[in-house]
Amino acid sequence: MKRFNLWMLVAILSCGLLTTSCSENDNPVDPTISNSIDVFWDMPGNAGDPEVVAALKSIENVVDLKPFMNVNLGQCYYFNYNQQVDHNDPSKGTFKQQVVLSFVGKDAPTILHTEGYALTEGFSTHNNNQNRLDSISAPHFLWALSKDYGKKGFDLNCVQVEYRYHGFTLPEWDADSFQYLNAEQHSEDLHAIVTDLKKALITGSGKWLSTGVSKNGVTSAQYAYFDEKYGWNDIDVYVPFVAPILTQTACLSVGTYMLTKSSKKALPLLEKAYRKLADDPDVAQATIDAYAKKLKKQGAELDKDSAYLFTISKVMNNLFKVQSYGDFDTWTELIPKDGDKPEVYADFFMLDDDSDEITRLTAAARGPLRVRKDPYEMQIPIDIGNMGLDYSWYLDGKLLSDSDKKFLKDDMEDSKNSKTLDLPVKLLKNLETTTKKLIFVYGEDDPWTGGAIPDPTNPNVKKYIVPHGSHTDDFKHYAWYDGGKAVVDKIMADVKAILFP
User: Fold this and answer.
1) Which of 123, 371, 379, 460 is the most exposed place for a label (fewest CB within 10 A)?
2) What are the 10-residue block averages of pLDDT along the chain, 501 residues in total?
3) Which of helix, strand or coil describes residue 45?
4) Closest CA to 309 of 205, 397, 380
């Protein structure tokens, strides 16, 4: 394959990060639209379908309704839903939750895309939370399940809901304490919206599918748990993509998977390259210098006393990002080889995409000048967890002092002993007996697969690992490699059997 440069791979990486993957149209955006935070309200709406508008207006909690055209979805209906801040105590008041609906018919199947972040964070820029609902993407299932797309549009309805405390879905008085940010409250949000749509608009016999990618997929799996717990019967099938169910605040199983199973075809070369950082003083210094230069551009400095350890941590985080979200073949062609200059190693180790941090922070900020805590980070110790890094490649490194090795070992031990989260433990236990239909899909080369559910024994729960798959739900990408298409065909057969009985 043609050798791409680093900038090409960074562009590839920026398509998705713990959010949704790129759409079929690569999420085109009208270049004439300004960068104003009010961009969505500045763009023209339309009349929409009078019957759909009337049905939505009949829902008491629907406000700010605006029909509009979306470049990926076609005719859409935006509205805010007056949501309970605390579903256990109505006296706490309400807040507005952003929803985008594309509607085909009352009897059509419906996809509920369980967003785990802001609806439009992919179009946020630094210090500017753009409400780019004109370009919100379509879930891949919408393309895959619409038989005549390109002739008459989609064959399914699609509902996309912003996660509470993200983007513009924000209880103002609780914006910084995050007191009511958790999966149970958000599942109640989804239940309220689905219930009202079923009563007022999507009133027919069409089945419902809930899906999402990464944290969006975790959101879908958690919704399934509460759907059964409270007997809502909202959804007919749940399909979480690349959704790690992490039972600790720092799950070492994810970091260990990265070093032992992720990108396994390239692991010997990767391990050899990364051990250079532990054994070759010239490579180590070049990498430290590259990291210091990167930090300086961001207005920060690398602490001299801990520069080596900080650099190792940064490099391992970068490896995690690239294995998760990069183009595998392009990336593996860039692995340094014996005889390459130290700077080549440093450039490879520093290859990453910082847009995840910027994106989450700007998507969390309500307004271009407001900076607040990242709700994703705030939710980690509550019910979603996070990954822990494995430093095994460095523990016998020649350049590391005994105190350095102790620090890395202690960090790994802290991950092993990190806080156990109640909800993920209950969710995994419930999968053993659930009557809900769940299909979990993971990528073989994705480090997050270290947080995959155990192989199910319950016939209602299925688990697929896509050969060579990454952190996405892209069926076209899955089908590129040997065995990928066969897995996609099985997933689609399972889904179609439930949606189109």
Assistant:
1) 371
2) 31 34 37 50 86 98 94 91 97 95 95 90 48 78 76 84 90 83 98 98 97 96 98 98 97 96 90 96 96 87 91 93 77 90 95 60 61 85 96 96 95 97 98 98 94 98 93 81 89 94 87
3) coil
4) 397
CA gap 239, 261 in Å, rounded = 24
CA 216 to chain centre: 5
The closest alpha carbon to 490, from 465, 470, 473, belongs to 465
Per-residue confidence (pLDDT) for residue 370, from 0 to 100: 60
Residues 329, 265 contacting (CB under 8 angstroms): no
- The residues facing 98 across adjacent strands are 80
Can you tell me which residue has the tokens 């406000």? 63
Closest CA to 239 of 203, 259, 263, 213: 213
Amino acid at 230: Y
| Helices vs strands, H then E, count in the chain | 18, 9
Instruction: Identify each DSSP E strand in 264-387 by its residue range.
Output: none
The residue to which tokens 């009337």 are assigned: 54
Q: Where are the beta strands (DSSP E) in 411-489?
A: 438-443, 461-466
List, as own/partner pairs, every contact residues 38-42 make where C-beta atoms lie below 8 angstroms and the sequence separation is at least 24, other chains included: 38/131, 39/130, 39/131, 39/132, 39/134, 40/68, 40/78, 40/131, 40/132, 40/133, 40/134, 41/66, 41/131
Distances (CA, A) of 441 to 83, 168, 238: 31, 30, 11
User: Dihedral angle at the C-alpha atoms of 247, 250, 252, 254, nearest 10 degrees?
Assistant: 80
d(CA 96, CA 173): 13
β-strand pairing of 94-102 with 110-114: unpaired
Q: Residue 43's pLDDT is what?
A: 73
DSSP 387: B
Kindly report the backbone phi and psi dihedral angles of residue 65, in degrees, each rounded to the nearest multiple of 5, phi listed first.
Answer: -70, 135
79 beta partners: 99
Distance CA 480, CA 444 (A): 14
Q: Which residue shows structure tokens 């009352």?
A: 106
Contact between 170 and 83 under an 8 Å Cβ cutoff? The reply is no
98 three-class SS: strand
Helix (H) or strand (E) holding 297: helix 281-297
pTM of the predicted protein model: 0.89
Within 368-473, residue ranges assigned H as helices are 375-379, 402-416, 422-430
User: Kindly report the CA angle at 492 between 491 and 498, in degrees rounded to 5?
Assistant: 100
For the chain, the first-to-last Cα distance in angstroms comes to 43
What pLDDT does 16 receive?
Answer: 32
Three-class secondary structure of residue 243 per DSSP: coil
